[in-house]
Amino acid sequence: MGPWDVIHKVFSAEEHKKMSIHDKSNMFFQDYSLGPLFVQDVYLQVVPHAAKGDEKKTLELISKSSDSLCDGDLVDRIIRSTNAWSLLPVQERISSFKRYIQSVVRHLFLCIMRFYQPSVAVPFSDPKIRELLISLQKQNMSETFCKSDLMEGHFVGQIGFPQWLGKNSTTNKNDRLLQHLQMHMRLRISGSKRAVNLDYIQYIRDAVTRPLIKEGTDGVEKSVEAMTSYDLIREDLGDILSLTTWPGRKDPMSQVEAKVRKLSVVRLLERRRL
Hints:
By secondary structure, the chain is mostly helical. It folds into two domains: 156 residues, Zinc Finger, Delta Prime, domain 3; 108 residues, no CATH class. The relative contact order is 0.09. InterPro entries: DNA_pol3_clamp-load_cplx_C, DNA_replication_fac_RFC1_C. It comes from Artemia franciscana.
């Protein structure tokens, strides 16, 4: 069963009529890495039948489901950061069940953080803490109900691929670009990768592009000097433009005249490098 089939079953009111609580729980283990991303991406596209068209009730159901997703994500971070894969059943319970479990898990995390400083990694491998977490599985589930039961209904849109995956890929790419820039600039600055992102690259971009925009070919040497003063190479210019051009904003290089681009900064940088 593929992820699209699973997510349809998770929220379909018709499918729930022929599913037991164990069937619903087993859907979590079809793909416990990708499944939560699908749920987070599409649960707002579901019209819950329990709300019966009441907008206030719909918002309450969405709020409860959002809390459940957050609680499940907390446990997911614990599992992946400490390789505590035996806690997967705990994540399934916390992600899927509400009312009683939500208050228990939040109280649990508050208790843990009282005993350990925030700057120190919480030792979830500690036997006492693990025993406390796993004990959640043994709670009486007769007073709980599934998160998917909260939002069961019908979809008003298509089930798409999780947008988080694309955003995460872009984030990782930008992080690598910043790392390369920081390495090239290391002999000139003492700033961290974060400092390069927040305090340097936008001003370097302006120092490179403004002379080209205002002075044309006469400003090429100034642009090259701005790059070489930070030991930046020709590939870095494209990275800087990529990192500082936000959606909805124009690329500064698009304002540079065509004849100036022919006598480009990149070419002069390459000549100086040789």
